[in-house]
Amino acid sequence: MVKNITIFTTNTCAYCKMVKQFLTNKGFSYDEVNLDNEPEKQKEAFELSGQLTVPITLITKSDDSKQVVVGYNLAQLVPAIS
Amino acid sequence: MTKKIIDFVAIGAGPAALSAAIYTTREDIETVLYEKGVIGGLAAVTDVIDNYPGFADGISGLELADNLRKHAERFGTEIRLGEVSSIIPEDGLLKLVTTDGDIYAKSVLLATGCDYKKLGIKGEVEYLSRGVHYCATCDGAFYRDKKLVVIGGGNSAAQESLFLTRFASSIDILVRGDKLKASEILIEELKKNPKIKIHFNVTPNEIVGENNKVTKVAATNTVTNEPVDYITDGVFIFIGLNPNTGFLKNSPVALNEVGQIITDDDLKTNIDGIFAAGDVRQAATMQIASAVGEGAKAALEIREYLNSLARK
């Protein structure tokens, strides 16, 4: 079970929009960290993913285990939220 | 069990497919689009689109994509976020193997567009998304006050370099040939921008890094044959496009030698009921305006095709 979801995004990132739309279509709510508005959180996004890119989606499960999905990657997002 | 048959399925949801969908849904043709990537395609990841008619001040790619999507959905288009992995003609229908399972369509539009080409040099894969990037609008924000290299000399390289100047302290553009292939208006903007320096006759050989970070592009000046290094924090690569037709490899749809879909003047492929439009098609102009026009034409041809099936 998914406990919560946080997505790191930027204003111009089309893939970020797709992740948000995909999760909304599936009935999930999420918190968004917009790195254009909060550039100081870039380090946090990099530490989670090891990559200099968005979207970064952090999925926390009910047992508090965490999974990070980099990019708009349905092959990883679908099992991560199921 | 009776199988559900959809009148028209488009593979892709870029400008060509969305334009086709506007037309087919207005004709009350049941229309489903499958998109495995971004709705709007490469147009959606482009910062500013300045040559699409009707937007005198230009429009952001994301906004244009969103407008096209809303327009298509207004008339009843269904967009499914998933992938089609193959097409099999079967009993007069077209079976599509999708992430939602098998579906059947009377007609299909192939409008999967293109993706950016890779350079194929050492360091490109090793530093992917950790210093090597193909999407400026996604990853540019990580390079505030940093030095960047952009590789390429066409419209994408020029447009994305201008976008990256919002963040980067300086940008070296490396061009393989002795001139830019970008449109004149973009070239003028590049020349005016004090953050941008253009280097011609440069062939990149390797993207070099230290401690998990990109540090330079090792290249050759092809006029002097001398090695030359470009110190950088990151590299953005825009060297052209490859058609997204890998999923057609085992299908009967005819492709040309570079993987583009072959059609006749009516956008019909060699398989009955399968049409193609936009950047994925042989002879495509790689322009959004053309893709939208082809989408409209494909929709009219598809309407005729469906009518011909009904008359049988």
Keywords:
heterodimer; A: 82 residues; alpha+beta; Glutaredoxin; 3 helices; 34% helix; globular; B: 312 residues; alpha/beta; FAD/NAD(P)-binding domain; 2 domains; seven-stranded mixed sheet; 19 strands
SSE pattern of chain B: EHEEEHEEEEEEHEHEHEEEEEEEH
Q: Tell me what portion of residues of chain A adopts beta-strand conformation.
A: 25-35%
Report the biggest beta sheet of chain B as strand number plus sense, adding barrel if it closes: 7 strands, mixed
- Shape of chain A from CA axes? globular
- Helix amount of chain A: 25-40%
The radius of gyration computed from the alpha-carbon positions of chain B, rounded to a whole number of angstroms, is 21 Å
N-to-C terminal Cα separation of chain A, in Å? 7 Å
CATH topology of chain A: Glutaredoxin
Report the mean per-residue pLDDT of chain A as an integer. 95
What can you see in these coordinates?
- The complex is a heterodimer of chains A (82) and B (312).
- By secondary structure, chain A is of the alpha+beta class.
- Chain A has one domain: Glutaredoxin, CATH 3.40.30.10.
- Helices cover 34% and strands 28% of the residues of chain A.
- The radius of gyration of chain A is 12 Å and the shape is globular.
- The termini of chain A are close together.
- Chain B is of the alpha/beta class.
- Chain B has two domains: 182 residues, FAD/NAD(P)-binding domain (3-Layer(bba) Sandwich), CATH 3.50.50; 120 residues, FAD/NAD(P)-binding domain (3-Layer(bba) Sandwich).
- Helices cover 23% and strands 31% of the residues of chain B.
- Chain B contains six helices and 19 strands.
- In chain B, strands 1, 2, 5, 6, 7, 8 and 19 form a seven-stranded mixed sheet that branches. In chain B, strands 10-17-11-12-13 form a five-stranded parallel sheet. In chain B, strands 14-15-16 form a three-stranded antiparallel sheet, with no helix packed on it.
- In chain B, strand 6 and strand 7 form a beta hairpin.
- The relative contact order of chain B is 0.18.
- At the A-B interface, helix 1 of A face helix 2 and helix 3 of B.
